[in-house]
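Chain A, query sequence.
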Amino acid sequence: MNRRERLVTSVGEFLQPGFREAVEAPARAVTDEERLARFRVVFHHAWDRVPFHHAKYAAAGLGPESVRSLSALGEVPFLTKEELLGAAPLDARRRPLVALASGGTGGAQARTRLDLDAVLKRYRRLLAILRGLGWRMGEPVAAFHPVEYSLGRMLKNALREASPVRAGFELAQQVLLYRLLHNRLNLYYDGSAFEEDAAADFVSALRRRPPALVLSRPDALFALARGARRAGLHWPSVRRVVCVGAQLTEGMRLELEDDFACQVRNLYASTELGYVGLSCEASGTAVHVDEERCLVEVDPSGELVVTDFENLCMPMIRYRTGDLGEWVGHCSCGRPGRLLRLHGRVRAHAAPAGGSSLREEDLVEFLASRHELQALQLRLWADGAHLSLRPHGLEPARKAAVRDAFIARFGFAPALDADAFARTPSGKHAYIV
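Chain A, predicted structure.
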């Protein structure tokens, strides 16, 4: 460990014994008995100390000792985001340190409460992930974020809500921890990242300060990379690119690896659950689930249901993530546990009359196959489907070719539309709206 790492882990160890070991320990196999035991700890805690869960489980005929096997998990009611918008499942005896707004694509945003214990557990997991990627604290990092997550916006929201604790948390996290200790440069983008001339400023910023690691949402990074190619710009070589927060497909991954001359890893995480899984050098976009800190189920519809073992302040038990996925066997790298492949959001799908149903993943892969495009969006209106394409400057023949390929693949004919892309409250690019 270097000096920065020793400083951070020493403070972490003082606040939470076991912090250093959790950062340095390699991933290990988790047995069914261990999964069940960890689930029962969270479930019993929720029954005993969280009135929201107690009432819900009692109404379902469950008691504190009801779950005696993994096969009995189906008896436990799901937790939904809609429920989080109402009476949050909080432990009244634990004091939340921070309330994080979910980065969803809908209007209302639920808030996930974390106490100091949960914050430290999430942070030590982040450090373990970054160490596993070969990064050492102090090496430069570049992170692409929607402008909604800039420090100025965050502080403004905290002041509007009269929350000095949240404002202090954001300052400490983004300035003291990330900027000074991690040596991280945050680059913020808005909807213009998907326009033709957006790449130059981002390429220049990275070339002035070449990072060892790039963290980004794949939708924005892919659009910027395509724009850079068309403009003849070249990104600096980096050690790793980590994509998080949106759908990454194999086609996107391979193209980004070519642009950045390094491996691209897929990190599955959410505000509600923290870090769930990370791909490896052999798994493509499929992720190894961190089975020591969460339990992942795939329900019959394909939706991922996750239980967080580490947030006792606001227990997230059998939470419906709104994400689609499937188990895809074991990895050739030899790491224990199953691989999880992600297929995008449950609601990000389209089934127009006369055409086959398509998911967000299908549209993203179509984008990756059309090298003349920087981005696209399918909008379903009352008068039919409309397909918006970037860049604007495609000549009519090439636009017609894209539309013909779309019809051939998906079986319905959208109108070509030059209007601006619809944006989401969290800054994510929605491929289907």
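The first strand starts at residue 98 and ends at 101. The chain has a mean pLDDT of 89.
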